[in-house]
Each structure stands twice: as C-alpha cells, then as structure tokens.
Amino acid sequence: MIDDGPEQKARLRGLIDIAKATLSNVHLARFLEHEASGGCTADQLQSLWGQHKTRDMLKAAHASGRFLHYRKLNPKLTDEAIENRIALTAEQLDIEVRTSRIKVLDDPSKCLIPVLTLLGETFLCEGRDGSLRVHTRLLAEWQDLILVVPPMLITAAWMAARRPTSYEDRQSLSALKSFQKRVQRWLCDSTLPVDDDPFLDQLCQSEGLGEMHMHLNGTTEAEKIWIDALRRPETVVGALSHKVVSRESGLHVAIGNGVERLLQQEDQNLSPRRLRVRVDQAIALKAFLLEKVGQDCPRDARSADISYKNVVDNRIAESQVSRTTAEALHLIDIIGTLNQPEAREMYGVAFYWYALLRAQFCRLLVQQVSQVGFDQFQHITLNELRETTEKDFADRFRQIERGVQAPVDFLEGRFAPKATPDGTARRLMQMLRGYLEFLDEKPDGTPRKHRHGQLSDPKKTPISLPELIRLVRVFENGSDIFPSSERRLRLGLVAHFIKRTDGSELEKFYQRTQPTPVCRDAKVRREADQAARALVVLMKSTSGLSELIRGVDAASNERHAGPEVFAQVFRRMRRAGVQRFTYHVGEDFVHLASGLRAISEAVHFLDLSAGCRIGHGTAAGLLPDKWWKAQGDAVVQTIEDRLDDLVFVWGLLRQKSLLPQKIVLIEMEIRRLAMQIWKTPALTPDVLHRAWKLRHLDPIVRTYGRYDVDPDRNAEIKLFRDSAVKDPDAHSQFLRRHGIDVEADVLARARQPIFVEQASDVLSADVLLVVQSAVLELLQFRSIGIETLPSSNVRISIHETYDDHHIGRWLGYGSDFCATSVVVGSDDPGIFATSLRMEYAHIKRALQAHGAGIHADANLQEMCKASKRYRF
After folding, report:
1. Domain map (residue ranges) of the chain
2. Phi and psi dihedrals of 2, rounded to 5?
3. What does the alpha-carbon distance between residue 727 and residue 731 come to, in Å, rounded to a whole number?
4. What are 297's strand-pairing partners?
5. Is the predicted pLDDT of residue 306 greater than 50, yes or no?
6. Which of 128, 228, 734, 786 could be a cystine partner for 389, CB 3.0 to 4.6 Å?
C-alpha cells in the first residue's frame, strides 16, 4: 500500500517508470523477434532460454532496453541516478515476492508478473457494488500509467491473486462458473476500471450522467480491439495496410504519411507488414501459454491459428461471459500458472514477449503523452485499426453502460452522414441494430426471456430504417405487449460534418494555377453540402428520424476548415427543422487569438443561439502567459491568419470601447500587413472588419445565377446578393479574399509566414484576457454552453497534467470571470483511455487543485444538471 509521504510517492513514481520501461522495451522485442525468426513454438522458446549464451544475450537486451526507455522518461537524470532508482524498485519487488532470489527485476522470465501484481495491489480495490475500482487519490498516476501499460494486464494480476486457491475449487465447474461471474462483475463490460469516489457513485446512481460529446467511432477501448485482432488478424490489421499508403498530411510543407509516422514513433522499424507479423506472433504465444494452462487442449505448434481457435473454444463455460471477461480469464489463468513454483522459465519469457506485443499494439490506439496536438490524435483515427471492431455498436453501448453500474443515462452519439441518403441510412441501421441488441439485454448482458422476434435473425427478417426507429421507441418506452428495456442508457444522435482540406486544391488556390478553385475550401464546402442534402432527404422520407437526430456538429481538425465553411450547411439543416447545434472549435490553434476568433466566428457565422453549445472552447480558458510559455514565447503563422486575428481583436475592442491605446497599435499593424498583401492604401481596418463579418456567406453561390429551384440555394443566393447591395466595399473585399478579381501573386503573399514573439506582440496578455472575457460574455449572453473534455484537452492542448486544466478558471477559481454553463463529455474515450465517469473524476481533482475544496462536489453536480439542461 502506498501512503502519501514523499518517499512513498517516489517509490510509486519509480514503480510506474519501471512498468513503462518494461512494457515499452522495443530493444528486447526486436531481439526476441530476431532470435525466434522461425516461429513461437515450444522448441524455439526453449532454445531462447535453454542455451546459456542466448539466455545471457536475452538478459542483456532486457536490461539495456529497459534502461534506455527509463532514460527517455527521465531525461534530466544522470545514469547513476537512474541506476539507483531502478535498484530501489528492484529491492521493493524482491521484498514483495518474498524470494531469496537476487534482483528478480533483471530476470526477463520472472520480472513481469511481480511488477503487474504490485501495480494491481497499489492502485486497485473492490467497490461496494463488487466492481473493480481505482483509488481516487492515485487517479492521476493511474491515468498516466495506462496510456503505456495495457490496464487488463494489471487488473488480471489483481484478479489472479483472488481466484480460488485450492486444487479442488480450480477443478470444480460450479466454482469456476462462480469465479467467472465475479470477474464479469469486477470488469463491468470494460477494460478500464473507474474511481472509488463515493460522491460520484451517488451522482451516477441518483442523477445519471449525460454524455454530451462522444464520437461513436473512437469509443471502443484499445484492448477490446486487441482481442478482436487476435481472432481476426487479417481484417483488423489488414485495414491498416490498405490505408497507410494513401494519407499525406501537412498544411504548409510535405511531412510524409501521418499513419506511417505514428508507427515509427512507437518503433522506428515498425510497418504495417511487421505489425501483422507481430500480431501473428502474439496469437502463437497466447495459444502456447493457454495450452500450458490446459494440458488436455490440442498442441499444434505448426498452425497457430488453429491452435489458438481450439484453445479459446475449449475454455470451460466461456459462452456464459462476455469477450472481455473471457480475455481476462485467459490472462488470470496464465498468470496463475506462471506464479506456480514449478513453472518453467520459458513460459515466463513467452508471457513477457506476448505482453510486449500487446502493449505496443494498444499504444497505437491510445494517444500518448508525447503525442501532442490534434494532428497526432488524427493519425490514430486514420490508422483504421478500429474499423473492423467498431462495426459492432452493441458492444460500445455495453461499454458505456458498464453493466449494473449504469453511470450514463443519456448519450449523444456523433456520426458522420454519408454523401447519399442510402449510405447514411445504412450507417444509421448499423448503429440502431446494435442499440436494439443492447436494449434487448438484461443489465448483466444476457438476452431477455421475451426477446423480440424481429431481432432473432436479421438476415431472415430484414428490417427497414423506419421499422428500426419504431422498435427503438418500443424498446425504450415499452408497449402493451412488450416491456421496456431494463437498460438505463438512452441514445440520441448528432450528425457531424467533417472538416478537411485538400492539399492539391490548396496549392492551386494560392498559386492561382488552372483549374483554379471557385473559392477557398471549395471541395469541402461541396462535400459537406452534399452530405447535408442527403441527410435532409433521408430525414424527410423516414418517419421518426428527425426526433432521433437531435442536433448537428462539425468535427475534426479545425485548422483544416473554419466555421465559415459550414455556415451554409448549418443554415440548410436549420431550415430542415434541426434546432440545436454545436461546433468543435478553439481546441487547436496557432495563436491564442486565433482560437478565440474561431469561437466567435462559430457563434456569429453559424448563428448559434440559446441551447446550442461550443465543443472544447479551450482558447477561452487558457492563461495567456502559460500558453505563450508552452509555445516557447514565439509562434509562426501566415500573414493572412495574423491579419485576421488583428482585425477580429481590433473590432472587438472598438465595439466595447476597451484599451484605446492598444487599438491604435493594433490598427497600425493591420494597415502594415494589409498593405503587404493587398498593396491597396485605401483598404482600412474598418473595411476589413466588415468583410470579415460577411464570411458566413457561401462564395460558391456566385456561380448559381440569379435564381435556383432548390429553395435552400435560392435563399443563399438572396443572402449573397443582398449583402453586395448593402455593403459593396466589404463584399468586394470578401470576394477578393476568395481569389476573385485578384492578381496571381496576391494570395501567395498572404500565405507567407510571419514570426510573432510574445515580447513584441501587440496582442499582449492584457489584450488576450479582455478578448477571453468578451468571448465568454458572448456565450453567456446567447445562453450557449461549453462542452469540456478533460482528457482530450490534456492530450491536445498545452496542459501537462489534469491539475493544470482550465476548468477552474471557467468556474471562477483564481480568475475574475466565469463561463457560461459547462457540460462534460469524453470525446473519443477509446483513444484517450477514459470514460465519462472518469472525466468527472479528473475534473474534481482539477477543481481541488484550483482551490475549490469542499465546493468541488457542488460544481460537479451543477455540471451534471447543466448537461440535462443543454441536452439536445
């Protein structure tokens, strides 16, 4: 047990670092891969450990690889300091395992299970509801750990220490089934245990949490995808092989394929092909270990796939438990067997190798501390390793429900509409089939006795989208002949349109080469509008769909397309009857002013009003000085982006009559940069600001003519033409920005980089604080909520820890302003290794770090209530 003293905290830090270094030992993984190039049979594994020379080489690879990764974790420590810290942890492990062996940590056949067991005993406990929990006081350390070390390895070691100890109980079918049920209750259909805070227990039970921001693709936990990869390696890992060759990233310069770079960040030798080989190795290793557990199972070392299938299918009574529980039982059996005194060392090496492969695979699905920013996040979403597993929507809803815990009562699930009504209908039917399967289960996951006949075999009994929607309502509310679902979770859908950019189009636009794009972001504007039109057609033709789709959003990398790009789409959806909108914005930006501008643009250009929300809004919470420090006190942005920031701030300060001396300085800089781009002395800050306000217009409209039979297009034409009549100077500048009637080199000048230093920036810290307050006042005035997503913010923004999160400023701790209503979401819980309950737990710790004290619980309760008020 770890107490709160300085020495014990140091010991805990050392244990975490050892666990990370042990499970990130790329050096050892490469050695094992090379030495066992012929396969993972008993003979090869025996050779690895049986020959004295090879054993020494294996130990050396283990020690050196562990040390090198420990150094990465602690770059400021000397070699001797690192040695001393490793020795301290080694001594602690020797005491824990109660062995006379010297330095068990240095033995690759023995080291892993003691490390995992000590982690489990340190972090985990059993909750009052019989579920597995993480000690709240160690939440930050746990979250840091599980980004690198797959949590099921730790939880399995904890559970293995609590399985029946007698030989008779382990052989008894009734005892085995009883233990399996206990494991299932420990896990709650998730690989990620939650905290043990009693207040959050009460809040979840009595109020129910509202999930206000979750992407359905990105929800599945990494180890669930690993389980699927072991069973279907070709489809799971093969998706990566097909995708990796086609993605190029980089807005300004070519930087290569982002997914390939993601693999190389983990291991410079890693490729899609090598990853597939390693998954095959893991399959063979796990089969080999399970065959050791059950000696009556077939031993066919020459056919890993058959061996794995036979071993898995022959596990006793596994048909009664979930796949997650079955996987945990595999690990528990393996760990329990390896803990026996007579266990042969080669099995310990096999398990270590298997764990290395498992950990590496999972890290490709979870954003690491070193992977800062939205681009790094997006590489994970694009690697397609989730694609196959995430076709099973029912399992995602089970994961959110968490069995009998049921912390979430309402989920706003985001999905991307397709380019055609049929494409969108197929995606919705896939989701709703999974939702119905989930609703038609008891809280423990078993099917209800009165199972609805139309769900028994969808191939024999095809169901249309309207019928699926009707069944959803029957299952949710019940009927005269059919009881309502016993599940607590209820689903609403939010359609989100994708922000993206096209490198080829971008180059043609700025260089004015043929064929020249009609305007900025022409391709994504057309793609988004096509998806919106298809969705509207489907909503009008499908009974009940308008009630199921609760709102509209636009997601993905905000630097790839600003709010103006989606203004026409949001207006189309509003005319179709959608009343609630949210928008991802102010999360990832070059300059803090750019993030604040983007939030303001989302409100004004998309006409967000009472009951709408802003997703993330991070720029409105960060301390300017802290943000500058994270940037190294300087940033590089394009001249046109810098000019836009200046014009936005200038207009805001002038409107509110604030900081008049700053207005003069900002105006001078605006004139200088405008002259540099446009070479027009008559272009004043006022004209630029009025032109900026027109960016809600759709520039593609100018190609439509004076009238269109599509009423939406006709409304856009009228809006466009009226603005030209009302303010011709601003409208003309609006068109010039879109490349209309400009010389070839004008936009090329606009794209040139400019270096901005904090020391000389006219947008100084006092200016940025005023702008932040003004943006938050705007949200308050319009009754717009903010969706806060702590884990996403910590990985993508400048926060080093959860305690640094800006939520405290929004709620009035340590600042002179208070935000509008704040609601909570988990964003992509699988990628951030989190859940909505854990996001609340992280917020509580952050508030306490900001001085909230006993008021933190009240703040959480208010956010929970706000989530219900702002629910779409």
Report:
1. 6-382, 634-757
2. -100, 125
3. 6
4. none
5. no
6. 228
